[in-house]
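Same chain as my last thread, 438 residues:
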Amino acid sequence: MTHRISRREYLQSSTVAGTALAVGYHSSALAVESKSPSEKLRIASVGCQGRAGADINGTSSENIVALCDIDANSLGRTAARFPAARKYRDFRVMLEKEADKIDAVLVGTPDHTHAPAAAMALRLKKHVYCEKPLTHTVKEARTLAELAKQNKLVTQMGTQIHAGANYRRVVELIQSGAIGPIKEVHVWVNVNYSGAKFNTGKPVPKHVDWDLWLGPAARRPYSTGVHPFNWRKFWDYGTGGLGDFGCHYMDLVHWALDLRNPTSISAKGPKVDPVSTPPWVIVDYKYPARGKLPAVNLTWYDGGRRPKLLGTLKDKNGKPTNRSSGQLFVGASGMILSNYGQHVVLRDGKITDDFKRPEPTIPNSIGHHREWIQAIKTGGTTTCNFDYAGALTESVMLGTVAYRSGKQIDWDAKNLKVTNAPEAQALIHKEYRKGWTL
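reply #2:
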């Protein structure tokens, strides 16, 4: 069994092809058939527009040989750019028929279809790039991570901001001890996905295959206001603001502090709606100590909620800071306030330049999609492989489980068990409808 070294150890010791840092399993543990850097990969895409379209753009230097979308209009627009690509409506059919003609698969569908598509591709021994959140349930995330490891495949979750220079500089600051040991972190995003209702009675648009869109979810009559985007508001298909942005904003915290699995999760928010995700939620995660690193309390806020501590912080001129979304690391000797593109150090609650920035140890990325492509060709790994991304997604989804169950969760990550609340355990996975499998 391959030993999982810490991300801190790996970041200090390894690089992939001299440029992009590898995180997770060492490349020697991946028995991947190497390809010449000049040899183009044969890629199939599950989904054609939105994030899927962006992922196709990000990998278009390779050969896009097959396209799949339940929406004929989306499929047609993308197929016009890749006229040689074979077209499909059902990803199960595409993957079965293309199994011996493709090397890798992009998955850019609504969240509820990520896992069944990615799992099928992994079982066919295809490398996979899948959008965030990696999955719709906790068990799905663990399943994809295990399949990727068992089949020794190169994987990447689509947390593109992870490839930005800002996150890397924050990780270096924190791991250099710039603000001392960190026991408290706050993460907030000003986003609201709520008010979802099924609106039935209208015919299915001719260009949409509604049954295929539902995929593993419960069979329902066609509802307006779901496809192509507002599905994020529905529990059947998405997980609201936490699901949409948790893997982006909590990513930095997991990376910088070597976090993996929380042991306790509790949440509060408005009364649970059986159909719609909430307008706001606050989730408290407790992570155990990791070697010399202390235990960490991480609190997530969305829907306009923010940490009270944020209101006490000042800029260099003594004026209040105002960040609509971000991360606040609270250390023994200072704080770091960050977001996607910026970060500042604070002493005594005020932004300061009085700190020593460490020498860069994490090379700038060659690009999130490019990391995946290069790792496939060189036998390497990626910064957000399914081992790392799976654990991150599990944490995110556990927040939704705590909220929906109304219970504080004691979590046994090794066995995927809620040890104190059977009603919460029932939400660790979901039942797929007939014809769909994980």
